[in-house]
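Field log, afternoon session.

UNIT: design team B
ACTIVITY: writing a sequence onto a fixed backbone
BACKBONE:
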């Protein structure tokens, strides 16, 4: 048991125990072990029990981590300037994936309205009933006059549409397969039970699908990696992107997340991979701890993202650091307007801190990247 993390409440531990029982049952049904990707899927998305499916606060100061929209309105206002020209041309929709607390949605709607570029519909793809309720409450609090513009979806749109797809910190939460390169070969990492019935790590020789994914990601660099070497691949990325963008006929997809190009992702010195957990604003590397109470993420291989976009039918694209993206889309103007509108010195100080966190290399400025893909009929 880790001693450097806050202790969950009794109710939280009971919730985690129920999810752990579900995972134990699945491990037993699978013959003694499940792949880590399945474990991650259950830990995050099991109905009513997974981290993103249950009712605890995830985002902001009261949750486990902070996303760019939770810091303030600067990120959304710059993003609005990036997508407004597309909406003016297409007269189309915005589809936001994984809308979280709804902070990005309400800030984007407000700024797009101010810019005269409101979408026909602002659609939120959200499967969690709890998060939908929170998003709806936020919309009604901040922009009730736009209620009829907002629509919640259980699945990607079935009919062809034009406009902009937005995914902010979504891909990092797609389940990953973990692998280990050892002197005696390539292994798949999974989850089993120890003698006491507790969740425990398990390794087995890599199956053909994992071997192919690792070979595709690493190519001829695989033999030169230090031993042992652990990392992850995200085989669901390409089919996921193809599905969520399948009916986008004309427009753009903007994807924001933390990640690296392939060479940096699988650098020899990054021999423990990028898998991280977040619990009450503390990061650690034990995903088997308290299932359902903590976020589990892995960084994004942006070269794999570009390959997935090509296979999904996207054409031209651009990629930049988050800092560069914000600067290119009106950061100076957004800052000047927000600074002039600030009521007091405390608000100006918070604004300055927000800008620093969004743009400094040691904060979100370089670790986060923005990929923009285009599609036309």
């Amino acid at each position: 048991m880790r001693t450097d993390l806050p202790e969950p409440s009794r109710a939280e531990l009971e919730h985690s125990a129920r999810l752990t029982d579900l995972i134990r049952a699945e491990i037993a049904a699978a013959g003694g072990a499940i792949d880590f990707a399945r474990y991650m899927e259950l830990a995050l998305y099991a109905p009513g029990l997974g981290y993103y499916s249950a009712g605890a606060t995830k985002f902001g100061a009261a949750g486990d981590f902070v996303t760019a929209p939770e810091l303030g309105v600067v990120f959304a206002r710059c993003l609005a300037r990036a997508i407004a020209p597309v909406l003016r041309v297409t007269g189309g929709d915005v589809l936001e994936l994984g809308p979280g607390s709804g902070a990005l949605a309400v800030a984007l709607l407000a700024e797009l309205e101010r810019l005269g570029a409101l979408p026909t519909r602002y659609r939120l793809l959200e499967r969690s009933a709890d998060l939908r309720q929170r998003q709806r409450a936020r919309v009604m609090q901040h922009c009730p006059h736009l209620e009829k513009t907002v629509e919640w979806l259980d699945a990607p749109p079935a009919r062809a549409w034009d406009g902009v797809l937005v995914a902010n910190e979504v891909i990092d939460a797609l389940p990953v397969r973990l692998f280990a390169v050892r002197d005696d070969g390539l292994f798949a990492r999974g989850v089993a039970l120890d003698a006491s019935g507790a969740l425990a790590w398990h390794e087995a020789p890599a199956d053909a699908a994992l071997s192919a994914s690792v070979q595709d990601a690493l190519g001829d660099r695989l033999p030169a990696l230090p031993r042992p070497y652990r990392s992850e691949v995200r085989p669901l990325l390409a089919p996921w992107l193809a599905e969520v963008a399948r009916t986008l006929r004309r427009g753009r997809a903007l994807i924001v997340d933390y990640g690296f190009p392939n060479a940096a992702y699988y650098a020899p010195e990054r021999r423990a991979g990028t898998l991280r957990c977040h619990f009450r604003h503390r990061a650690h590397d034990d995903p088997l701890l308290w299932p359902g109470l903590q976020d589990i993420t892995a960084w994004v291989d942006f070269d794999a993202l570009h390959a997935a976009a090509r296979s999904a039918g996207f054409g031209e694209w651009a990629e930049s650091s988050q800092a560069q993206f914000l600067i290119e889309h009106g950061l100076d103007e957004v800052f000047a307007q927000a600074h002039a509108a600030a009521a007091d010195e405390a608000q100006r100080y918070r604004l300055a801190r927000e800008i620093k966190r969004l743009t400094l290399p040691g904060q979100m400025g370089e670790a986060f990247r923005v990929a923009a893909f285009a599609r036309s009929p």
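LOG NOTE: The two ends are 55 Å apart (CA to CA).
NEXT ACTIVITY: expression trials, pending approval
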